[in-house]
Amino acid sequence: MKYLCLVYANEQELHSSPDSPHDSECHAYAQRVQESGRMLAAEALQSVQTATTVRMRGGKLAITDGPFAETKEQLAGFYLIEARDLNEAIQLAGHIPAARVGSVEVRPVRQLDVDPAAQS
Fold first, then answer.
1. Which of 38, 80, 87, 94 is the most buried (most CB within 10 A)?
2. Domain coordinates of the chain in residue numbers?
3. Which regions span the lipid bilayer (predicted)?
């Protein structure tokens, strides 16, 4: 089963806390998960200041610079993993280096029922 591990952290603390992970540690973690065959994708995101939020309301597109909501923690990156079950996904997420200074939300990926013939 696929799980998305969303990494949230306060951007200032993510890079300045004594517990902050260094890029080399994050790369090493990703490499270990990749070698185990459970890594499907992983990316770090640029600063929340580069975000653009898109909404469609009443048929009109609204674009806002910045994140959707003001929060103490921002989405910093993600890991898309393959795991036997939620317990294994939680164990993998617990070792994500940024979990020491932020949080990791683990969510099962929902398969969309899309009929390829209906797309024509």
1. 38
2. 1-106
3. none
